[in-house]
């Protein structure tokens, strides 16, 4: 049995669907099962990753686990998994950890989760993706209101990855001994600035979208207003304004591990077009 955390999220949701479609035994961990519709063939279990004691039932009979990072007691979550008989954990991290400054709060969060996994006594594999194409869902409200997209960090290209591809890699490595002790950096197929993603979205939606770069002070105020903790806002500004994180390198790893090239932003936009209409 494979336990997938973050099952209602972008990566975990894709992973539950892909594992179930492959006929593998999969259990989706969610905090509120009544708000979650599992794909056919998948089990659902309730649990809160900030409370390791709440995971006991969800972990029953599990031998491999897909885990998001950054929760209150990662060593506690992993100790519970080990006690339940889990053998392999696959952690969703970020490639910002590579050469990242541990004083940056996002880097520190991922480095701390990676360290907990390495020290857990479990077999482990770490996935270190680039920024996600699904971050574009942040434009949904603006696109419902009109044809203008205002977004931060307008000059910054990112080789964004489709969560579908992260999940496909996770499905390949979960439970496979040869990936124990490995950290796989992952990227999408092209480094694009937000304006380029807006142009592709405009083509897919057949709408005359106009992109405007958001000034940094406006972007900071909006992030804080949306409840993003200040230390993480600072971390994003260090990444993308101070230039601490180059998320442009295009890597062969998705194709190496899955046997097919990573999906393009246009693929992602076509799949999710209805969410912007
Ligand atoms: N976005 C990026 O560009 C990027 C880049 C690199 C790495 N990452 C990492 O990727 C992860 C996010 O992945 P994602 O986009 O697939 O997730 P997401 O769509 O943001 O959803 C978050 C998931 O976490 C679950 N969750 C939140 N708090 C929980 C808790 N206390 N206990 C159990 N589950 C909880 C949520 O479930 P509920 O239904 O219970 O809320 C939801 O399924 C983060 O660790 C992030 O740091 C993101």
From TrEMBL:
Xref: Pfam families: NAD_binding_10
InterPro entries per UniProt: Ergot_Alk_Oxidoreductase (IPR051604), NAD(P)-bd_dom (IPR016040), NAD(P)-bd_dom_sf (IPR036291)
Residue ranges annotated for the NAD(P)-binding domain, each copy included: 6-174
Provenance organism: Streptomyces fildesensis
Protein name: NAD(P)H-binding protein
